[in-house]
Amino acid sequence: MGRLRHKRNHHGIRDNYRRQRTRAYTRDLDQIQDDLKPENVGKKKNQEIDTDLPGLGQHYCVECARHFISEEHYSEHLKSKLHKRRLKKLEDEPYTQEEADRAAGIGKADNGPKGGRALKTQDAVMED
């Protein structure tokens, strides 16, 4: 009896991981922040009928960037934990590009006030 050979069941695991990682991609929080501006909310809420979207694209949650089949499912979603968590995340202001550059060490250096150090012209005087 020889040694049993491994079956090698997971030979393509890397490709499966990549497929799953991008399959259910949703909009990022900064993109949703742009959607929540007053001029964009009306466009997202009142979309034209699209037969490719669930519920013909008429029941859309702007905060979660999701379409729903019916008004009942949409109202049920508004009560869910997932929706409430998303609302809490959206309360924070998104980072700007300037903040990201400063965190990476790129950008204008903060070297203190203009003019540098003030030089002392007097010598230290010792008292008896």
From TrEMBL:
<comment type="similarity">
    <text>Belongs to the ZNF593/BUD20 C2H2-type zinc-finger protein family.</text>
</comment>
<dbReference type="GO" id="GO:0042254">
    <property type="term" value="P:ribosome biogenesis"/>
</dbReference>
<dbReference type="GO" id="GO:0008270">
    <property type="term" value="F:zinc ion binding"/>
</dbReference>
<feature type="region of interest" description="Disordered">
    <location>
        <begin position="1"/>
        <end position="52"/>
    </location>
</feature>
<feature type="compositionally biased region" description="Basic and acidic residues">
    <location>
        <begin position="25"/>
        <end position="48"/>
    </location>
</feature>
<dbReference type="InterPro" id="IPR036236">
    <property type="entry name" value="Znf_C2H2_sf"/>
</dbReference>
<keyword id="KW-0690">Ribosome biogenesis</keyword>
<dbReference type="InterPro" id="IPR022755">
    <property type="entry name" value="Znf_C2H2_jaz"/>
</dbReference>
<dbReference type="GO" id="GO:0005737">
    <property type="term" value="C:cytoplasm"/>
</dbReference>
<dbReference type="InterPro" id="IPR051879">
    <property type="entry name" value="C2H2-ZF_Maturation_Protein"/>
</dbReference>
<feature type="compositionally biased region" description="Basic residues">
    <location>
        <begin position="1"/>
        <end position="11"/>
    </location>
</feature>
<dbReference type="Pfam" id="PF12171">
    <property type="entry name" value="zf-C2H2_jaz"/>
</dbReference>
<dbReference type="InterPro" id="IPR003604">
    <property type="entry name" value="Matrin/U1-like-C_Znf_C2H2"/>
</dbReference>
<keyword id="KW-0963">Cytoplasm</keyword>
<keyword id="KW-0863">Zinc-finger</keyword>
<feature type="domain" description="C2H2-type">
    <location>
        <begin position="59"/>
        <end position="88"/>
    </location>
</feature>
<keyword id="KW-0479">Metal-binding</keyword>
<keyword id="KW-0539">Nucleus</keyword>
<protein>
    <recommendedName>
        <fullName>C2H2-type domain-containing protein</fullName>
    </recommendedName>
</protein>
<dbReference type="InterPro" id="IPR013087">
    <property type="entry name" value="Znf_C2H2_type"/>
</dbReference>
<dbReference type="GO" id="GO:0005634">
    <property type="term" value="C:nucleus"/>
</dbReference>
<dbReference type="GO" id="GO:0043021">
    <property type="term" value="F:ribonucleoprotein complex binding"/>
</dbReference>
<keyword id="KW-0862">Zinc</keyword>
<dbReference type="GO" id="GO:0003676">
    <property type="term" value="F:nucleic acid binding"/>
</dbReference>
<feature type="region of interest" description="Disordered">
    <location>
        <begin position="90"/>
        <end position="128"/>
    </location>
</feature>
